[in-house]
Amino acid sequence: MPHRSLALIVDDEPNIRLTLKQQLQSDTLNVAVAGTVREALEIIRATPPDVVLLDVRLPDMSGLDACSRIQEIDRLVPVVIMTAFSRTDVAIEATRRGAFDYLIKPLDLPQLRDVVQKAVQVSRLRRVPAIVSSSEQPAGDDVDPIVGNSLPMQEVYKFIGRVAANDAPVLIMGESGTGKELVARAVFHYSHRRDKPFLAINCAAISEALLESELFGHERGAFTGADQRRIGKFEQVNGGTILLDEIGDMSPATQAKALRLLQQQQFERVGGNTTIQTDVRIIAATNRNLPEMVEAGLFRRDLFYRLNVFTVQLPPLRQRLQDIPDLAVMFLNQITRQTGRSFRHMTAEAIATLQQHDWPGNVRELESAVKYAAAHCTGDVITPDCLPEVCRRRPDLREQSKPVDGDAKIDIAALTRQLLEAGSTNVYREVSSYVDRVLLATVLDHAGGNQQQAAEMLGISRMTLRARLRQSVVDSGEKDGNVENSGGTEPTV
After folding, report:
1. Domain 1-130 belongs to what topology?
2. Which of 146, 193, 210, 207 is closest to 172 using CA atoms?
């Protein structure tokens, strides 16, 4: 008999509790219900659930306050906020308090099931021993937080937990700005070497002539200007950890010495004959495709195999757009600490604008965008107008496409090919979201802006139409793998 996960529904409406339980209960998911926060907390203390569906308005406590209370009892359980009120401040506050997701009533049941399924998966990942998350990092330690609860980041956390206690080399690959050094520092921080030195060396920032000397040291007279012996980093950091950042830029000669170090923990200083023994863990990072470089003869095959013991590919920001709200809040908090200027929140429209950008510079680019917005914001609320122009004018499906008419199939096919060629991993969501937006806009225009008439033309309720309109503004389905059945005939809750 497979293990049954547990979902807890907290809502003061008995009919809603019953309907949700009937819709979610399955062979793999058991559903418990509670009408008050007090009942919910008792259930959580007795049997920790895998996901909590929490209404905002409850008789004994606000759902947002309840979210905080639940996190205090069990910080690993994902909390999904449900509300009939699509207020921006509630959405932002829910995110700030650690909510996994935020759903607007009337609930789209296929979407709800999808969110619950993902929350259960994340809950299981979070409960893997030694997972590293920002909330688990001890306060006051010199380690920057890794922010993100998306499934791609959960895999990264699992990787860190697996390799931290091992002394084998680690290879971190990812585009520029994805946080490779942060991951390296987290591996070091949770290793038994954490009380020893950690040093990051950017192989691309040091000339080929100097890098070998910088890493291995040199003897007096080894080259012009070497008027005295120099101790290299591998000697200085003995017992600790060295991050060789951008190792793909390392010269063949330095690669050979690095290979020997990995194999034997031995090296000679430049111009020296004395073999020096050292004990250093190596973490390598690169934004290049090392396998391709190996095949092209640009990187030593034997060195690659030595490094490729524990390897992780960091996801680009475009594959973890659901982490943008948490990242933006973190950057705003950093700005507050640095400047003393505080911001109430970033509007949902601003968040949606950020989530529509491709982020070629990844998290580093997002940080710059938030700093720009803070500098150009005249009030204490970040709106889309505060954001850099490149974020606001990003061509999206609405701008690239013609109205839906007789040529719609051709248009959509072209869009699909364009997304596939661009490497999108969320083609269904992006295309269906576009179609939904155009459909709603066209019908609303035909109805002269009258939502009731538009809803009747579409064959849906006015509340469902309003929910779809909100969905088109704040596309909460940007999460990887979140496939929405926008045309379903299932009941709404």
Report:
1. Rossmann fold (3.40.50)
2. 146
